[in-house]
From TrEMBL, chain A:
Family note: Belongs to the CDC50/LEM3 family.
Protein name in the entry: ALA-interacting subunit
Main localization of the protein described in the UniProt heading: membrane
Signal peptide annotation: 1-20
Bias-annotated ranges (Basic and acidic residues): 214-224
The species this protein was found in: Nelumbo nucifera (Sacred lotus)
Keywords linked to the UniProt accession: Membrane, Signal, Transmembrane, Transmembrane helix
GO cellular component, one term: endoplasmic reticulum
Lineage, uppermost ranks: Eukaryota, Viridiplantae, Streptophyta, Embryophyta, Tracheophyta
Transmembrane segment boundaries: 122-144, 380-402
Automatic annotation (TrEMBL), chain B:
Top-level taxon of the source organism: Eukaryota
Name of the protein in question: Phospholipid-transporting ATPase
Family: Belongs to the cation transport ATPase (P-type) (TC 3.A.3) family. Type IV subfamily.
E.C. number: 7.6.2.1
Binding positions for Mg(2+) per the UniProt entry: D429, T431, D861, D865
Length: 422, 1231
């Protein structure tokens, strides 16, 4: 806001300077007391009679125009005295200087300008241009997305023993073994690294109560461990602060996956799955979990208290809260290629309770392209828009040929169209 | 289009009007009495005050107020509370204050910063402005309060500051000094106890006024004498009437009546007098000038009022959105979402066991969250734009600078810039506005003989229309043409009149001209160098004429008039003759005449009288019937040539008669009550049995370029009404001359000058007459209406004109007939109202303003136009030579009528376009922004989680999108200034309010809906899954930052698409705004912000920019979002082009506005031509003030008002002034 007032105050100055004419600066009037007094009286009295002798008092609004005006006045020194008189200067002793406004392109509103007219030609070429640019990008994005091999396995129902499926919540809160085996077949060659995601559904990580239930201070500074005011209700456990506190950390996802191919373990690398800035900036390397998951109700995973938060990457990933209720989070990387028709055995611990709120759980194995994971949206959007523009360009051209309108045809003027009623 | 549709109040362009035509007329019925309030006097305090002069102790018990004044609004302690109070009287500010308070509570989803920052910025800006203005006022007051004045203390003149002055003090004011308070004039250094005062500061009249002290006090001039003065003044209580004063001075047990003639008002200054001595009567805030301090009711533009409706609609939208969210939240909340920690002890807002409370609280949450839908910076931005528009563009437009009077245009308010672009009716005064008010003695008729050979412009124009050709009369070589005199007839000049058949009548004629007036001579006493100070230019012209005929009036003393007479006794003889002035019967608008009783050097006692024909003819002795008939013929002849006429008459008096009359006169003069009325009555006694000498004809010249301007304006769809005090013939002729009426028009004339009415009047029963005229007017109106209706249905295209005179208008404005009058007049393309009073001017203006709901503009130059100027939506004063009253009351002041073209067609139209664009754009950008937030609400379980970071939201309006829209508000031009004037029809777009209809707003709303959906869904959907080749995923803040970036980029680019012309400032501001966002986000996300910055957007932008997703989305989303608008604009332009777009296309290859290139080269220097005319204008000259009432303003209002039992002031100036004080809001409401 400030900068634009400043800018606006420079308009006339700049415009007159660029015209290369030096404004004649008169030395400011050395008003003796009498003149000041007369001006004062005149101002005062006309103020009384009209309550608005000069534009100032009636102009509500902002102060900045005054700066603007002052700047201008310093250039048009002859205006300075007349503004106080507000037009009553008739009767004052004749002054040599005229009240003729100075020419400037700004005040005469003649700044050089280009005047774009949206003629059919322009419309058509703009559409063509968009389609020419968009279609290749669309194709490239779509190809990139199609290159990605993705295996999605929804397991939240299958991983509950058939006899417990009547009351899933009870099962998940019980103590029975929750180990579950899944088999995945690789449909296509998958180049390493292969990313392992878990995808949750109907999970409102963006709920207002959830989002604010954390303490960033506490996360990166060991001295702020007591800073848990925002973490309610998961702030303290038997009077001592929980580190990391808050609902987000408390509900940390705790299903675990391990993979094997042909009975051969596939290592899941869990390093480097979070953004570097989070690791280094937000989570302290000297902050260790404390009192975590100590309470009566256990939410999710617990943390190894001997590892600093900056190395608890599962937590870091989890705490970068998702924007939508359906989200995918990175679990780890498999750093070997998978061949077509490879059968992957997944051993998973189905610990996390999404059953209360009927959320789905999915395990995703995916490669990436330069664009990222499998997401056709960008490619399709680009292609659609490009195609639409192309179609519009054609349509406009056809309309233009079928029903042309001569540019600037006076017969289109409203007063020529209708018989001139009075 | 059928003209009858228009009579219905236009369905207000934004939002249907609630009132039908019938009910709006009905409501006027109630308000009729309101209109009369115009003339109401301020109630005066009862009693009187007694002042003991030169005796501070004696005055002490009364506790008169001191002489210090304060015009400031605040002091140090009241500034903050009062200033803030003023600010929070604006609804928008109050709303944001409430939002800010809400956002400090736990139910708020946003940090208080979000709302506090913009609000405090806006408040800060406004308060600084207020403080600055008040500081200026304070300094001013200080200078005034501490200026020195000489006061009599212990037989010496002591200099004390003004503020120490007390009632009863004896003061001395030196030449050119200002009177520090209202003074009783005691003594002067001038002989005869007179002094001259300049009242320019009070009423703008630049001529000097004479004040005369009572003879008894002349001696109290030197301190020794003055200290002996112990008078007692009994006078009225302080009041605001500048021109009245009643009181008595009691000196040595003698009671002397005081009149305004002895009062020197604060604010005036002393001229041509070494010093005067006076006694202080009223001080400080009780002085008349301070009592006159009035707040001109500030006008708001129609567009702004419609803007309020838009804001209301936004409130409606806000409420609706919040309601949806609130219901959603009540439904959503559930303990099954265990991760939200919704145990039993959860706070109310999330407690699933009471869903109703959850919904209510969420409602408030959402109101804070969506508060951005109301654009907080809109009002500030608009004010700023308008301020720059008026101070930089209108005030400095070289096209509206008038060189001769050295006057640029002046926008006195910046509230109404865009109103100028929508004016549909112009009400114009004639004298001084359409005409130059340059009165030139042109012709005369003496004793039944016409003299003067000139042909007026009007005659010439009439001749051209009828196809005849005038032979240009060669001016005789010795024709004299000076200011005020343009007469050529060898029969009268240089003493040739002696050879005419009636030299004695000629002599009386000239003497009457030279003696019967109130003109003051100034300067050297030679015919070439003298200048005349006159109350009206007519008078000056008449005295100048006398001078040229050889009767040179050169000096005035209080009792004599000295005339240098040539050729009287015999040819070539020049002698100075001194006429003793015995009594002066002054002019006023009821008398319409002026008389002087003088004694010739030979002892002959004569009353010279001049005045309007109607009053003079009534008072003639019956003998000279031949001259009477001839003169009446000549009067009509002059009138039809557009000349202004006055009749001259004289009467010989006997000493005896005079003495008897004078007694009554003196009695009347010293009466305390109803003095004016009594004086008028006494004057009637002697102004009778007059002998007609002849009549004068003065030409009232048209202003430059008036006909062309009127034609342009009428092509622009503006209807022009002329409201004048002139006679019907003159008015019609002027209307012809300025091509307002032509012969192709069907004219309806409603006049009171019919035989039937005259006959009725001669019977002398006013009540009966009134009833009769009323009936006549009623029938006439009905007849005209029917005829007009027929005309519009059958005959095509013939335009209609209505001419109505003041007396008929008085009855036609009656609530019962008003509807008919309005119906008829709205169908006429030209309306001329003649013989109207100032009050009626205002009534007619309000009739159209309120009755037809059209936007009106009044333009005038004199005091009699003040009420009209203030009644209209836009008031324009003609500045320059004339006085200041009209200018003081106006919203804009221009020097010439023809500048209306520039003011309306260029500035007005542009302002309208720009403000429309700014307003709709503000609407769009805030709606778009808020809607993205709204869509997000659906996916957060209606919890009211904010989508954007607090700072994004608070800076969105004040930094990232603020500047470009201001640039557009300043620089956008659809077509150049010269094309605007070449195609005045473009102006109709403003009259129809094409650019700020609900339809336009609807289109914007539709596209902001579309865009917000694109922003939200495109950004979120495309962000699903892993990003980049590293497979990491985004969080909420990554996506919201992405979305915000898209919004900022798109919204700024959208503005560029809406521009008609793009200057480099557009580029700079748009690029600057986008850049500002990036700079901000780079810095902001680069640092860890401490304190309460949960889940901050640390490093978000760097994370985003490391992905291809960012770039692809940034290209895709704005293009898709703008595609809709682009398509719409392309189709609209192609298939349903606006007029301005066609004009743009027609002139697309024209070079850049070249019309002004000549100005470009001159720079600040004057052209030789301009320099010459400027130099001429700087020569000493007669500075005159035509107050309007001199010869053309009958006081019909008095009769009208007296019927209602309301006192109506006689003086036009009073009417105008009181009308201007009508600031009570209740009058506003009742309409």
């Amino acid at each position: 806001m400030f900068c634009f007032f400043f800018l606006s105050s420079l308009f006339s100055y700049f415009e007159s300077q660029t015209r290369g004419r030096k404004s004649q600066r008169r030395t400011s009037h050395l008003l003796n007391f009498r003149t000041k007094f007369i001006l004062g009286i005149r101002f005062h009295i006309s103020a009384l009679l009209s309550s608005s002798p000069s534009p100032f008092p009636v102009l509500g609004g902002s102060f900045f125009p005054f700066l603007f005006l002052l700047l201008n006045c310093s250039m048009n020194s002859n205006n300075a005295s007349s503004s106080a008189g507000g037009g009553s200067a008739d009767s004052s002793p004749p002054r040599r200087n005229s009240k003729r406004p100075k020419y400037s392109r700004f005040t005469q509103q003649e700044l050089p300008a280009c005047k774009p007219i949206l003629t059919p030609k322009w419309v058509i070429s703009a559409f063509l241009l968009v389609s020419i640019i968009f279609i290749p990008i669309g194709v490239a994005s779509l190809l990139a997305s199609r290159d990605v091999v993705e295996i999605v396995d929804r397991y939240e129902t299958e991983c509950i023993p058939a006899d417990s499926r009547g009351d899933k919540v009870k099962f998940i809160q019980g103590t029975a073994s929750k180990t579950c085996k899944r088999t995945l077949t690789v449909p296509k060659h998958m180049k390493q690294p292969i990313y392992v995601y878990y995808q949750l559904d109907n999970f409102y990580q963006n709920h207002r109560r959830y989002v604010k239930s954390r303490s960033d201070e506490q996360l990166h500074d060991p001295k702020s461990a007591n800073d848990t005011s925002s973490c309610k209700p998961e702030d303290t456990s038997s009077e001592s602060p929980i580190v990391p506190c808050g609902l987000i950390a408390w509900s940390l996802f705790n299903d675990t996956y391990s993979f094997s191919r042909n009975n051969q373990q596939l290592t899941v690398n869990k390093k480097g799955i979070s953004w570097k800035s989070d690791r280094e900036g937000k989570f302290g390397s000297d902050v260790y979990p404390k009192n975590f998951q100590n309470g009566t109700l256990r939410g999710g995973a617990s943390l190894n208290e001997s590892i600093p938060l900056s190395e608890q990457e599962d937590l870091i990933v989890w705490m970068r809260t998702a924007a939508l209720p359906t989200f995918r989070k990175l679990y780890g990387k498999i750093e070997v290629d998978l061949q077509v028709n490879d059968v992957i055995q997944v051993t998973l611990e189905n610990n996390y309770n999404t059953y209360s709120f009927g959320g789905k759980k999915k395990l995703v194995l995916s490669t990436t392209s330069w664009l990222g994971g499998k997401n056709d949206f960008l490619g399709i959007a680009y292609l659609t828009v490009g195609g639409l523009c192309f179609f519009l360009a054609i349509a406009f051209t056809v309309t233009y040929l079928v029903k042309p309108r001569r540019l600037g045809d006076p017969s289109y003027l409203s007063w020529n169209r209708t018989p001139a009623g009075h | 289009m059928n003209g009858w549709d228009r009579v219905r109040p236009s369905r207000s362009r934004l939002g249907g009007s609630r009132a039908t035509s019938m009910s709006s007329f009905g409501s006027e019925r109630h308000s009729s009495s309101q209109t009369i309030h115009l003339g109401r006097v301020q109630p005066q305090a009862p009693g009187h005050r007694t002042i003991y002069c030169n005796d501070r102790e004696a005055n002490l018990p009364v506790k008169f107020k001191g002489n210090s004044i304060s015009t400031t609004k605040y002091n140090i302690f009241t500034f903050l509370p009062k200033g803030l109070f003023e600010q929070f009287r604006r609804v928008a500010n109050l709303y944001f204050l409430m939002i800010s308070i809400l956002s400090a509570t736990p139910i708020s989803p946003v940090h208080p910063i979000t709302n506090v920052v913009p609000l405090s910025l806006v408040l800060f800006v406004s308060l600084v402005k207020e403080a600055f203005e008040d500081w200026k006022r304070l300094l001013n007051d200080r200078v005034i309060n501490s200026s020195p004045i000489d006061v009599l203390q212990e037989q010496k003149w002591e200099s004390i500051p003004w503020k120490k002055l007390q009632v009863g003090d004896i003061v001395r004011v030196k030449q050119d000094g200002f009177f520090p308070a209202d003074l009783l004039f005691l003594a002067s250094t001038n002989p005869d106890g007179i002094c001259y005062t300049e009242t320019a500061n009070l009423d703008g009249e630049t001529n000097l006024k004479i004040r005369k002290a009572l003879e008894r006090t002349w001696d109290y001039l030197i301190p020794d004498k003055a200290s002996e003065f112990k008078g007692e003044i009994q006078c009225e209580q302080p009041n605001n009437s500048l021109y009245t004063f009643t009181g008595n001075l009691i000196v040595k047990k003698q009671t002397l009546p005081l009149s305004p003639n002895q009062i020197l008002l604060r604010g005036c200054s002393l001229r041509n007098t070494e010093y005067i001595v006076g006694a202080v009567i009223f001080t400080g805030h009780e002085t008349k000038v301070m009592m006159n301090a009035m707040n001109v009711p500030s006008k708001r533009s129609t567009l702004e009022r419609k803007l309020d409706k838009l804001i209301l609609a936004l409130f409606g939208g806000l409420f609706f959105m919040c309601l949806i969210g609130a219901i959603g939240s009540g439904v959503f909340i559930n303990r099954k979402y265990y991760y939200l920690g919704l145990s039993e002890s959860v706070e109310d807002q999330f407690n699933p066991s009471n869903r109703f409370v959850v919904a209510i609280l969420t409602m408030f949450t959402l109101i804070t969250l969506y508060s951005t839908i109301i654009p907080i910076s809109l009002y500030v931005s608009i004010e700023m734009i308008k301020f720059i528009q008026s101070t930089q563009f209108i005030n400095k437009d070289l096209h509206m600078y008038h060189t001769e009077t050295n006057t640029p245009a002046l926008a006195r308010t910046s509230n109404l810039n865009e109103e100028l672009g929508q004016v549909e009716y112009i009400f114009s005064d004639k004298t001084g506005t359409l005409t130059r008010n340059l009165m030139e003695f042109f012709k005369c008729s003496i004793g039944g003989e016409v003299y003067g050979t000139g042909i007026t412009e009007i005659e010439r124009g009439a001749a051209q229309r009828s196809g005849r050709k005038f032979e240009e009369v060669q001016k005789s070589a010795n024709a004299v043409h000076e200011k005020g005199f343009n007469f050529d007839d060898a029969r009268l000049m240089r003493g040739a009149w002696r050879n005419e058949c009636n030299p004695d009548t000629c002599k009386e004629f000239f003497r009457c001209l030279a003696i019967c007036h109130t003109v003051l001579p100034e300067g050297d006493e030679s015919p070439e160098k003298i200048t005349y100070q006159a109350a009206s230019p007519d008078e000056a012209a008449l005295v100048t004429a006398a001078k040229n005929f050889g009767f040179f009036f050169y000096r005035r003393t209080p009792t004599t008039i000295k005339v240098r007479e040539s050729h009287v006794e015999k040819m070539g003889k020049i002698q100075d003759v001194s006429y003793e002035i015995l009594s002066v019967l002054e002019f006023n608008s009821t008398r319409k005449r002026q008389s002087v009783i003088c004694r010739h050097p030979d002892g002959r006692l004569v009353l010279y009288c001049k005045g309007a024909d109607s009053v003079i003819f009534e008072r003639l002795a019956d003998d000279n019937s031949q001259v009477k008939i001839l003169t009446r013929e000549h009067l009509e002849q002059f009138g039809s040539s557009g000349l202004r006429t006055l009749c001259l008459a004289y009467r010989d008096l006997s000493n005896d008669l005079y003495e008897r009359w004078n007694e009554k006169f003196i009695q009347a003069k010293s009466s305390l009550r109803d003095r004016e009325k009594k004086l008028d009555e006494v004057a009637e006694l002697i102004e009778k049995e007059l002998i007609l000498i002849g009549c004068t004809a003065i030409e009232d010249k048209l202003q430059d370029g008036v006909p062309a301007c009127i034609e342009t304006l009428s092509r622009a769809g503006i209807k022009i009404w002329v409201l004048t005090g002139d006679k019907m013939e003159t008015a019609i002729n002027i209307a012809y001359a300025c091509s307002l009426i032509n012969n192709d028009m069907k004219q309806f004339v409603i006049s009171s000058e019919t035989d039937a009415i005259r006959e009725m009047e001669s019977r002398g029963d006013p009540v009966e007459t009134a009833r009769f005229i009323r009936e006549t007017v009623k029938q006439e109106l009905r007849k005209c209406l029917e005829e007009a209706q027929q005309h519009l249905h059958t005959v095509s295209k013939q335009k209609l004109a209505l001419i109505i005179d003041g007396k008929c208008l008085m009855y036609a404005l009656d609530p019962a007939l008003r509807g008919n009058l309005l119906n008829l007049s709205l169908n006429c393309s030209a309306v001329v109202c003649c013989r109207v009073s100032p009050l009626q001017k205002a009534q007619v203006t309000s009739l159209v303003k309120k009755g037809a709901k059209k936007i009106t503009l009044s333009i005038g130059d004199g005091a009699n136009d003040v009420s009209m100027i203030q009644a209209a939506h836009v008031g324009i004063g003609i500045s320059g030579l004339e006085g200041m009253q009209a200018v003081m009351a106006s919203d804009f002041a221009i020097a010439q009528f023809r500048f209306l073209t520039d003011l309306l067609l260029v500035h007005g139209r542009w302002s309208y376009l720009r403000i429309c664009k700014v307003v709709t754009y503000f609407f769009y950008k805030n709606l778009t922004f808020t809607l993205t937030q709204f869509w997000f609400t659906f996916q957060t379980g209606f919890s009211g989680q904010r989508f954007y970071d607090d700072w994004f939201q608070s800076l969105y309006n004040v930094i990232f999108t603020a500047l470009p829209v201001i640039i557009v508000g300043l620089f956008d031009k659809d077509v150049s200034a010269s094309l605007s004037k070449k195609y005045p029809e473009l102006y109709k777009e403003g009259i129809r309010n094409t650019f700020f209809k609900w339809r336009v707003v609807g289109v914007w709303a539709f596209f902001s809906l579309y865009q917000s959906l694109i922003f939200y869904y495109f950004v979120t959907i495309s962000s699903r899954g892993g990003q980049n080749s590293s497979g990491k995923t985004f969080g909420l803040w990554d996506i919201s930052t992405m979305a915000f970036t898209c919004v900022v980029v798109t919204v700024n680019l959208r503005l560029l698409m809406a521009c008609n012309s793009i200057t480099r400032w557009h580029h700079i501001s748009v690029a600057g705004s986008i850049l500002a966002w990036f700079v901000f986000i780079f810095l902001y996300s680069g640092v860890m912000t401490p304190y309460d910055r949960q889940e901050n957007i640390f490093f978000v932008i760097y994370v985003l920019m490391s992905t291809f997703y960012f770039y692809l989305t940034l290209l895709l989303v704005p293009v898709v979002a703008l595609l809709g608008d682009f398509l719409y604009q392309g189709l609209q332009r192609w298939l349903w082009p606006y007029d301005y777009q066609i004009i743009q296309e027609m002139h697309r290859d024209d070079p850049d506005d070249s019309s002004r290139t000549e100005l470009l080269e001159i720079g600040n220097q004057l052209t030789p031509d301009e320099e010459r005319s400027y130099a001429i204008s700087q020569l000493p000259k007669e500075k005159s003030k035509h107050t309007g009432f001199a010869f053309d303003s009958p006081g019909y209002e008095s009769f009208f008002a007296s019927q209602q039992g309301v006192f109506a002031p006689q003086k036009a100036w009073d009417v105008a002034r009181r009308a201007s004080m009508r600031s009570q809001p209740r009058t506003e409401k009742t309409y």
